[in-house]
Amino acid sequence: MTAMFLYLTSSAQLTEKIKQEAAFQTKYAFELCKHLHQNPELSYQEFSTAKRMASELEQLGFQVTTNFGGNNVVGLFRNGEGPVVMIRTDMDALPVEEKTGFDFASIKRAINTEGSEFPVMHACGHDIHMSVWTGTLRTLVALKERWSGTLLVIAQESEEVSGGANKAINEGLFQKFPIPAAALAFHINPELSSGTIGLVEGPVFAGVKTAEITVYGKGGHGAYPEKSIDPVVIAARIVIDLQTIVSREIDPFEPAVVTVGSIHGGTRPNIIPDEVKLELTLRYFSDETINKIISSLKRISAAAAQMAGMPEDKLPKVVILEVDTPPVINDMKLAKQLEIFSADIIGSENILRVKPAMVGEDFGKYGYTTEKIPTSLIWLGSSSPELLARLKEKGQTPAPLHSPYLFPDFEVTIETGIKVMTANAIGLMQKNR
Ligand code: ZN
């Protein structure tokens, strides 16, 4: 009884301590956020951002490794015996022209890897992710008497193009550094109020694969269709028949998407071309579903060509591109623990259930290595409740991620993020818990 009482008292004190320190560190993190917001950098070009993240870690006494696969920055902080907890932020911005009207709005432009110039904006909230990450680490170091274990942190490049996580993993993240018992990350969510978080147990973000289908035909004069086999007609059939994969072949309770995003073939109205190319994005949550989708793509494409009379050696070529993003699946046990720690700090009324999304996030890759690290991605509410209420009255929704009008409620979002991430990390590494 007494021991329990003492535990509760010290736990309530700790919660208070985290709140105070997080509020204090929010000032610093918000200033950092404004700087990052004004100085966004495109994927693969996060040079000054990475430098800044590395210097933030050095100031805190982390052992820092820069250029760990591209611009990735890895930090290690050993604080006694205990579990290793990984916290990840992403760093890249988008080729979007900011239209928010913030006094610290970005006016930056940059030349991308293909040589074209673009305006650049942190339109996906990675500036907030970095500020919360830094603020959390500052809070954790300030409170280092209250936990015991090792922090493995990564500021990751090129999330938007699904490049950075792979580079860190291939560089040996889990061989050259201690293997984490849990890996955590945030993503802002403009549909949720600042001050709240969204927790999901199980699937959060879909897996993404890209497919290319080359449909062959027998080219000829548009006026002599009988002397040709028209790949435009075969491709049109394929596009329509592919729609039956999700609607007829996949379990209705299993989310999946097959979208043909581009179709190209032919040069002139009166020429039947030799080939047509289709490009597809595929979204899924389980290996079984994606394997089924891929085998159906091949079967349907081949059947359409056979039906048109194409010989067996000229059936459509289906290629699944190497670059892919596995689904982000929150570990059930970890998500339940985080819910308890988060409720302690922001109240269970501020923890919302959120549906999985069909977009991709390369954070999932950290959970898909042979080490099978339990991962959890937490949604961080980022629109002020007033803004959401005003929009709702008008039947509107907030500007989504990647919008030039993305309008986060910076300070509250950052403070909530720091509180929650600190409480989670300490929860997982608390002494005598
Ligand atoms: Zn993002």
CATH architecture annotation name of the largest domain:
3-Layer(aba) Sandwich
CATH superfamily membership of the largest domain, which one?
Zn peptidases
For the record, the CATH class of the largest domain is Alpha Beta
The share of residues in extended strands comes to 15-25%
Radius of gyration: 25 Å
Mean pLDDT: 95
Strand order of the largest sheet: 1-2-6-3-7-18-8-17
Which structural class do you get from the secondary structure elements? alpha+beta
**Count of domains:** 2
H/E element sequence: HHEEEEEHEHHEEEEEHEEEHEEHEEHH
How many extended strands? 18
Largest sheet: 8 strands, mixed
Count helical runs: 10
The CATH topology annotation of the largest domain reads as Aminopeptidase
Uncertain stretches: none
Q: Tell me the overall shape.
A: elongated
Small molecules bound in the structure, each named once: zinc ion
Distance between the termini: 16 Å
Write the layout of secondary structure elements.
Layout: H1 2-38, H2 47-59, E1 63-65, E2 73-79, E3 84-90, E4 109-111, E5 117-119, H3 126-142, E6 149-156, H4 164-170, H5 173-176, E7 182-193, E8 197-199, E9 202-205, E10 207-216, E11 220-221, H6 231-249, E12 257-265, E13 271-272, E14 275-284, H7 287-307, E15 317-320, E16 328-330, H8 332-346, E17 351-353, E18 375-383, H9 385-393, H10 410-429
Parallel strand pairs: 3-6, 3-7, 7-18, 8-17
Antiparallel strand pairs: 1-2, 2-6, 4-5, 8-18, 9-16, 10-14, 10-15, 11-13, 12-14
Helix pairs in contact: 1-3, 1-10, 3-10, 6-7, 8-10
What does this structure look like?
The protein has about 425 residues and is of the alpha+beta class. It has 2 domains: about 300 residues, Zn peptidases (Aminopeptidase, 3-Layer(aba) Sandwich), CATH 3.40.630; about 110 residues, Alpha-Beta Plaits (2-Layer Sandwich). Helix content is about 35%, strand content about 25%. It has 10 helices and 18 strands. Strands 1-2-6-3-7-18-8-17 form an 8-stranded mixed sheet, with helices on both faces. A 4-stranded antiparallel sheet has the order 12-14-10-15, covered by helices on one side. Strands 4-5 form a two-stranded antiparallel ribbon. β1 and β2 form a beta hairpin. α1 packs across α10 and α3 packs across α10. The protein is elongated, with a radius of gyration of 25 Å. The mean pLDDT is about 95. The chain binds zinc ion.
